[in-house]
Specification:
2 copies of one chain form a homodimer. The first copy, chain A, is an alpha/beta fold. Chain A is about 35% helix and about 10% strand.
Chain lengths: ~220, ~220
Amino acid sequence: MVGIAIARKKKCIVVLSGGPDSVTVAYWAKKRGYEVYALTFRYGQIADKEVKHATMISQSLGIPIKVIDLSSLKDVFVGVTSLCDRNIKMTSDFSQPIIVPFRNAIFLSAAVAYAISVGAIEILYGAQGSDEAFYPDCRTKFYKAFEKAARLGTDTNISIKAPLSKLTKAEVIKLGAKLGVPFHLTWSCYLDMDKHCGKCESCINRRKAFREAAIPDPTEYAE
Amino acid sequence: MVGIAIARKKKCIVVLSGGPDSVTVAYWAKKRGYEVYALTFRYGQIADKEVKHATMISQSLGIPIKVIDLSSLKDVFVGVTSLCDRNIKMTSDFSQPIIVPFRNAIFLSAAVAYAISVGAIEILYGAQGSDEAFYPDCRTKFYKAFEKAARLGTDTNISIKAPLSKLTKAEVIKLGAKLGVPFHLTWSCYLDMDKHCGKCESCINRRKAFREAAIPDPTEYAE
C-alpha cells in the first residue's frame, strides 16, 4: 500500500490585542507552521483602536481575524478600571497596576469556544514575563489553572500557552524584530489619540522595552 | 465603649438564565440572607426570551439584574450548536447532548469581573446533579478548577459555588417549590415560541422533573 502523507497544519487561536506582545506571538506561531486564527475583542476599552491595529496586523500576516464585540461588558468595568472609564484617573507611576479584572479569562474563555468551533487544540496569548508581577491573569500559574478548567469544562485536551512567558518585554521586542513583526502597525497606548501618548503606563513600558532591546522604536509618540 | 454592630449582608452574583435551576439558586441565596446581584446574558441563543424571563424573576425577587450582551459570540457558536444555529438539527433524544462549548466558563468569567466590581466574594450558578453526566461545564470538578483559576487570576479569594450540584433536577423543583419560586415565570425551552414547545431536550427535562417531584407543573406546553 502506498500511503500519501498529507501534512496538516496544527490550528491555533491567538488572542490578538494589536500590541507588540500578542503580535509577536502571532508571528511566532505562523513561523512555527501553525494555521493561525486571530481573535480580538471590543470590551469597552478607551483604546478601541486596538481593534483596527489587530486587524491591520492580521492582514499583514495573512491570517483570518474574528472581532468579538463584548463592549456590553463596559457596564461591568466602568467604575472599576481607568482603561474603560474616563472618570478614573489613569496612573502612570506603577503605584497601582491598571487592571481590568479577569479580562484575560473572559478572552481565553471565548477563545476556547472559538477553538472548538474551528477545531484548534491550542490557544496562545501574549502574557510575558515583565507582566507577571503586575497582572495576575498574565501569570503562568493562572493560565495553567485555567487550562485545567478548560480541559474539564470541554472534555478535550485543549492547551493554553503563553510562549513569551519566560521573556522580558525587551526580549519580546528582540524576538519580534527577528520575526519581522511590523512594530509600526502595533498599538500599545491606553488612550485613543492619533499617536501614542508616550506617557501612560503602557507607552512607558513600550518605550523602555525598545530602548532596552536596542531596537529602533518606530512609534510616533505625542510627547 | 459601646459598639454598634451593623450587620452587612454578604454579596453574591447569581448567573441567572431564567430557568428553574438558576432561579432556585437565586431564591435560595436571598433566603440565606445574601445580597443577590443577578447577571444574565444574551449570547445569540434562539431562546432569547430567557432574558425577559430572568428579568421578570429578578423583579419578582426584588434583586437587581444586569443584562450583558455577548451576542457577538453568535459568530463563534453558529455552526457549532443548535441552540444558536437554526440550521443545525436539534436533537431531543439525548443521543448527543446539546452543548454550547465552554459557555458557562464565559458566563462565570464575566461574573468574576462583575463580582469584583460590586465587591461580591461568591458566585453562584445553577449547575445541578442531573446535568453532570451531559454537560462538562456543569461538573463539580470543572467549577472547582475554574474557582482556582479565578482566585489566581484576580489575586482574591473569590468562590464559585453550585449549591444544587448534589441534587437531581426533581429535587431542585421540590426545593424551589419550598422557597416559593414562581415557576410559571421561568423559561426552559430552547425555542422562542409563545409557549414551551414541550418537545426539546430542555422541555423534556423540565416536564420529567416536575412529574418526578410530584409538584404541579404550571408550564403551558405547545404539545
